[in-house]
C-alpha cells in the first residue's frame, strides 16, 4: 500500500512520502579508481521522463565538478602546507577546497532541479548525502498526478 | 610497556581497570590514554629537565626545534584521533529496494581493467565501494579503510590517513630528537649521573628508545604502503600479492595523493540545506520516439506511461512498478532449464565451474509472518529469511574452523528439497504450481545430508517459486549478475546474508524483525578485521536462539542453528519455514540444479581436496567465478544423479571448487595476518583483528600458504586471473 500524501506539494514532503518507491539510482563509476565519478549511463526508467542529453549533461557536469574538487594541484598543496604550519587550526576559519566545490555542486544541483528536473517530475538528490556512493533521482510524477485526479474526481462528484 | 603487537588484544591486556559488566568501554581508551600519557609526559620531562641545559650550553634552537616537532606530532595525533575517517552513512531503505532479495552478496566492478569485488554490507546496507571496509569496533563502513588503530582509538581511513602517517613520521623524528639530545646531555654529565636531571633524562631516553623500534617499524611499513598505494587492510589480506594493484597511480602520485590532496569531506553529520523547489504538475514529458511507442504497445503495461493513463489504475500501476521496476522477462522455464546443461553462456559455465561459496547472496527477505496477508512476493521471502538463519551456524564454524562451515553451507542445496516439498504441499499462491511440484519432485531426490542448512541457496529457489513475476525478475537480475560476479566467497558471506534482513519490495516497513538483534552481532563477528573473540562464535547460537525478535512467528523456528545441527532437525525447521511458501515456478529449476545438496561426508576430510580442486576450477573459469559463487557446492550432484538428471548432468567436476575460495578467504587471511603480524610486530601494527584472529585461526594458518601457492594465475582466454592469499581474485584482461 502506498501512503497518500494528497496534500503534499512541497518538495521535501514529496520526497519523504515517495521515499520507498520510484527511485532511480546512478551508481559510481569506478573504472578509473576511487576518484569520484558517476556513471553516465541513461537509466531506462527515465526514458519517458527526461530527454537523454539533458540528463547526461547534468551527470557529466557533476563529474567535472568532482574531478575539480579532487584535483591535486597547487591550491590543494598550499592548503595542506598552511594547515600543517598552523597545526590545522586554519580549518577552524577556512573552508577546504573540497568543501567549496561541494557547495558549488549543491547549488548546481538545486538549479538543475528547479529548471529541468522538477518540471519533469524528477528530483535529484545531492550524492554527498549518501556518502557519494549514488545519485538518486526521485520520480515524483505519479503522486502529483493522483493528486490532480483526486481533486478533479471530487469536483465531479460534487457537481453530481 | 605492553607490546604494540596485536592491537585488538593490546587494548584489553593493558586494561586492568576494565570492569566485567562493560568490558569494552574502558579498555578501548586504555591504549590511547597510554599513548597520550607517554607522549606528553616524556616530552614535558624532556623540556623541563634536559632542554634548559641544552639551550644554555649548546644552542637555543634545540628547544624550539623540539617544540615545533612535538607540536606537529601532537596536532597530527589529535587529528588522527578525533577526525572522522570517512564514515559512510547508513543507506536508506529506498536504496536497498533497488536490489532484489536474491541479489548477490558481491558485485563486481572493473577498476582499470581489473575486476574488483564490492561486498554487500549488511549493517550499512549498500555495496561497499572499492577499498571500503566495515570496522566492527566502530561499526561503520569506512572509505579507503586502512585499519583500526587502538592507539588513537579511531579508524584510519581516507580522511585521516594523512594525519596518521604524518603522526608516525613526526613521532619517529621526535623520538630520535629526544633520544639524541638526551644522549648528548648524558654524555656531558657523566660525572653527575645520579642527579635528578640526569636520571630523568635517562628515563626519557629509555622510554624513547623503547618506543623507537615499533614506531619506526610502523613508519617504515606505512612508507612502503604509501609508495605502493596500498592500505594496511589490503596489505594484510594479501589482496594484491602477486597481482596488480588497480588503485596505484605510480609512486610519486601516490605520495602526493596522501600528502597534497585536499581534505576529503565528511559524509555524516553534514548540515542539510532544505531544498525548496516547487513542484507543479502537469509535468513536461519528452516526445516519445517510434520505438518507444511501439514498446509501449507491445509490453504488458507495466512500463506504461502513467501520466497518460490518468486514472485510478495509475495507482495500481505504480504499485506494480514499484514491485517490478522492469517488466519481467518472458518466462521460458522449459527453454531455460534444458539450456543449462548446454553451454548456455553464463549459467552453464557457472555450473561447469562449480559454485564457490554457498552464501553469495545478501539475503534480504521481507520478514513477513505467515499471518500477514501479503502477496506471493512475501512468501519466498519468509522462507528465505528462515533459511538464512542457518547462516549464523556457518559463521560460527567459520570462526572456529573455517572450513567446517563450507560443507554446511553446501547443505543449503538440500534445503531445496525441503522447500520443494513445501511447495508441493500447495501452500501459498503460485501460478506455476504444477512446475513447482515437478521441480520439487526432482529435488526431493536429494538427500538432506550434512549438518546445517544454509539459507541462501534455498532462498534463491524459494524466491523464484514464490511469485511468478518476482521470480522472473529475480531470475532475470540473477541471470544478469551471474556473469559479473566472482566466485570468491567466504563462509562469512552466508552469515552476512543471514544478517541482512531487508524487507521485500511489497512490504515498505524497514522493521526487519531480526535485523536489530542480529545484524550488529553478525557484522561484528564476521568482519575480517574485527577483533575476533574466541568465545564469540560460541555465543552466537545461544544469543540468537535466546532472543527471537518479537512479532514474527517464524523466529523460533528459524533460530540460529549450530553447524552441527542434525539433518533431521534442520529438515524440520525448514519444513516449518516453508509452510507458507508458494510453489516453485519453472525458472527455479534453473537454480535448483545449481544448489545441489552438499555431500554428506564430513567437511574436514573433503577440505584439502576441495580446496585444491576448487582452486583449479577457479583458475579455469575466471570470469565465471562470480556466477558460480551464487550457487552452493554442487559436488553432491554426483551422488544424486539418479534422482534428478537435470541437476546432475553438468556438475561432476564441480564438486570441490565452491569451498575453495571460501575456505581460502578467511583462514588464509587470518593465517596471513598472523604471519604478517609477526613480521610487523616490531612495527607495532595495530590491526584490531589480528590478535584475536590469530588465536583462533592459528592452527589453520599452516595449511593456508599451501593453498595460496595453488592459486597461481592461469591465463584463460585473454583474462588473467590472479588470486591473492586473502582469497580475493582479481581478473586482469590481457
Automatic annotation (TrEMBL), chain A:
It is found in: Golgi apparatus membrane. It is a lipid-anchor. The keyword Coiled coil does not apply. Its main location: Golgi. One of its GO terms (biological process) is protein targeting to membrane. GO terms for cellular component: Golgi membrane; palmitoyltransferase complex. This is Golgin A7 family member B.
Automatic annotation (TrEMBL), chain B:
The keyword Lipoprotein applies. It catalyses: L-cysteinyl-[protein] + hexadecanoyl-CoA = S-hexadecanoyl-L-cysteinyl-[protein] + CoA. It holds the Pfam family DHHC. It comes from the Eukaryota. Residues 428-444 have a biased composition (Gly residues). One of its GO terms (molecular function) is protein-cysteine S-palmitoyltransferase activity. GO terms for cellular component: plasma membrane. Residues 460-474 have a biased composition (Low complexity). InterPro entries: Palmitoyltrfase_DHHC (IPR001594). The DHHC domain is required for palmitoyltransferase activity. PANTHER family: ANKYRIN REPEAT AND LEM DOMAIN-CONTAINING PROTEIN 2, PALMITOYLTRANSFERASE ZDHHC5. Belongs to the DHHC palmitoyltransferase family. ERF2/ZDHHC9 subfamily. This is Palmitoyltransferase. It comes from Oncorhynchus mykiss.
Amino acid at each position: 500500500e502506498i501512503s497518500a500524501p494528497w496534500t503534499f506539494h512541497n518538495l521535501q514532503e514529496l520526497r519523504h512520502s515517495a521515499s520507498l518507491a520510484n527511485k532511480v539510482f546512478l551508481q559510481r563509476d569506478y573504472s578509473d579508481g576511487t576518484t569520484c565519478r558517476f556513471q553516465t549511463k541513461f537509466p531506462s526508467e527515465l526514458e519517458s521522463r527526461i530527454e537523454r542529453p539533458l540528463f547526461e549533461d547534468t551527470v557529466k557536469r557533476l563529474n567535472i565538478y568532482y574531478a575539480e574538487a579532487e584535483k591535486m594541484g597547487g591550491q590543494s598543496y598550499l592548503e595542506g602546507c598552511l594547515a600543517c604550519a598552523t597545526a590545522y587550526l586554519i580549518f577552524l576559519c577556512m573552508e577546504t577546497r573540497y568543501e567549496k566545490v561541494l557547495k558549488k555542486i549543491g547549488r548546481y544541483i538545486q538549479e538543475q532541479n528547479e529548471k529541468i528536473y522538477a518540471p519533469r517530475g524528477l528530483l535529484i538528490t545531492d550524492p554527498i548525502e549518501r556518502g557519494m556512493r549514488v545519485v538518486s533521482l526521485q520520480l515524483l510524477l505519479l503522486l502529483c498526478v493522483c493528486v490532480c485526479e483526486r481533486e478533479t474526481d471530487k469536483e465531479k462528484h460534487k457537481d453530481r | 610497556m605492553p607490546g604494540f603487537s596485536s592491537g585488538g588484544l593490546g587494548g584489553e591486556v593493558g586494561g586492568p581497570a576494565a570492569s566485567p559488566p562493560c568490558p569494552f568501554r574502558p579498555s578501548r581508551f586504555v591504549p590511547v590514554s597510554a599513548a597520550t600519557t607517554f607522549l606528553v609526559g616524556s616530552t614535558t620531562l624532556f623540556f623541563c629537565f634536559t632542554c634548559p641545559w641544552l639551550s644554555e650550553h649548546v644552542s637555543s634552537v634545540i628547544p624550539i626545534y623540539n617544540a615545533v616537532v612535538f607540536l606537529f606530532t601532537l596536532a597530527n595525533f589529535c587529528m588522527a584521533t578525533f577526525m572522522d575517517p570517512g564514515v559512510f552513512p547508513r543507506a536508506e531503505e529506498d536504496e536497498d529496494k533497488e536490489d532484489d532479495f536474491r541479489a548477490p552478496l558481491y558485485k563486481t566492478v572493473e577498476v582499470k581493467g581489473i575486476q574488483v569485488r564490492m561486498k554487500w554490507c549488511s549493517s550499512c546496507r549498500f555495496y561497499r565501494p572499492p577499498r571500503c571496509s566495515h570496522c566492527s569496533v566502530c561499526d561503520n563502513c569506512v572509505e579507503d579503510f586502512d585499519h583500526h588503530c587502538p592507539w588513537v582509538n579511531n579508524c584510519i581511513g581516507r580522511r585521516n590517513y594523512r594525519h596518521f602517517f604524518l603522526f608516525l613520521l613526526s613521532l619517529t623524528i621526535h623520538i630520535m630528537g629526544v633520544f639524541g639530545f638526551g644522549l648528548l646531555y648524558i654524555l656531558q654529565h657523566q660525572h653527575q649521573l645520579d642527579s635528578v636531571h640526569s636520571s630523568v633524562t635517562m628515563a626519557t631516553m629509555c622510554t624513547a628508545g623503547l618506543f623507537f623500534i615499533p614506531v619506526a617499524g610502523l613508519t617504515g611499513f606505512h612508507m612502503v604502503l604509501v609508495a605502493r598505494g596500498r592500505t594496511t587492510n589490503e596489505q594484510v589480506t594479501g589482496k594484491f600479492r602477486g597481482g596488480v594493484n588497480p588503485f596505484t597511480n605510480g609512486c610519486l602520485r601516490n605520495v602526493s595523493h596522501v600528502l597534497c590532496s585536499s581534505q576529503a569531506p565528511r559524509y555524516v553529520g553534514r548540515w542539510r540545506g532544505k531544498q525548496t523547489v516547487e513542484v507543479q504538475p502537469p509535468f513536461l514529458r519528452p516526445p516519445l520516439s517510434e520505438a518507444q511507442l511501439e514498446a509501449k504497445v507491445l509490453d504488458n503495461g507495466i512500463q506504461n506511461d502513467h501520466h497518460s493513463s490518468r486514472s485510478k489504475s495509475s495507482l495500481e500501476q505504480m504499485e506494480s512498478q514499484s514491485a517490478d521496476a522492469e517488466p519481467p522477462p518472458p518466462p521460458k522455464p522449459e527453454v531455460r532449464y534444458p539450456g543449462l546443461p548446454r553451454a548456455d553462456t553464463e549459467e552453464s559455465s557457472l555450473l561447469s565451474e562449480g559454485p564457490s561459496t554457498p552464501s553469495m547472496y545478501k539475503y534480504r527477505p521481507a520478514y513477513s509472518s505467515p499471518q500477514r496477508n501479503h502477496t506471493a512476493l512475501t512468501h519466498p521471502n519468509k522462507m528465505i529469511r528462515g533459511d538464512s538463519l542457518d547462516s549464523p551456524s556457518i559463521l560460527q564454524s567459520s570462526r572456529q574452523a573455517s572450513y567446517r562451515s563450507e560443507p554446511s553451507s553446501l547443505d543449503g542445496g538440500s534445503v531445496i528439497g525441503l522447500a520443494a516439498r513445501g511447495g508441493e504441499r500447495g501452500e501459498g499462491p503460485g501460478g506455476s504450481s504444477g512446475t513447482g511440484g515437478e521441480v520439487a519432485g526432482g529435488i526431493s531426490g536429494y538427500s538432506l545430508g550434512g549438518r546445517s542448512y544454509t539459507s541462501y541457496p534455498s532462498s534463491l529457489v524459494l524466491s523464484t517459486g514464490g511469485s511468478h513475476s518476482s521470480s522472473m525478475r529475480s531470475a532475470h537480475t540473477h541471470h544478469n549478475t551471474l556473469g559479473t560476479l566472482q566466485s570468491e566467497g567466504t563462509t562469512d558471506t552466508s552469515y552476512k546474508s543471514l544478517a541482512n534482513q531487508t524487507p521485500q519490495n511489497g512490504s515498505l516497513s524497514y522493521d526487519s524483525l531480526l535485523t536489530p538483534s542480529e545484524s550488529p552481532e553478525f557484522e561484528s563477528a564476521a568482519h575480517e578485521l574485527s577483533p575476533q573473540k574466541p568465545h564469540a562464535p560460541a555465543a552466537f547460537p545461544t544469543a540468537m536462539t535466546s532472543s527471537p525478535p518479537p512479532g514474527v512467528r517464524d523466529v523460533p523456528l528459524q533460530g540460529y542453528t549450530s553447524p552441527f545441527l542434525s539433518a533431521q532437525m534442520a529438515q524440520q525447521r525448514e519444513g516449518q519455514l516453508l509452510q507458507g511458501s508458494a510453489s516453485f515456478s519453472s525458472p527455479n529449476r534453473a537454480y535448483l540444479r545449481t544448489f545441489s545438496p552438499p555431500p554428506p561426508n564430513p567437511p574436514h576430510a573433503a577440505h584439502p581436496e576441495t580446496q585444491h580442486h576448487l582452486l583449479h576450477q577457479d583458475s579455469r573459469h575466471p570470469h565465471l567465478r562470480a556466477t558460480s559463487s551464487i550457487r552452493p557446492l554442487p559436488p553432491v550432484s554426483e551422488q544424486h544423479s539418479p534422482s534428478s538428471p537435470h541437476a546432475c548432468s553438468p556438475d561432476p567436476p564441480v564438486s570441490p571448487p565452491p569451498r575453495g575460495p571460501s575456505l581460502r578467504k578467511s583462514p588464509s587471511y587470518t593465517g596471513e595476518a598472523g604471519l604478517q603480524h609477526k613480521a610487523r610486530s616490531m612495527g607495532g601494527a595495530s590491526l584490531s583483528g589480528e590478535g584475536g584472529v590469530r588465536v583462533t585461526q592459528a592452527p589453520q594458518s599452516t595449511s593456508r600458504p599451501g593453498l595460496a601457492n595453488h592459486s597461481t594465475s592461469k591465463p584463460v582466454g585473454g583474462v588473467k586471473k590472479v588470486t591473492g592469499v586473502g582469497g580475493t581474485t582479481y581478473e586482469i584482461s590481457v
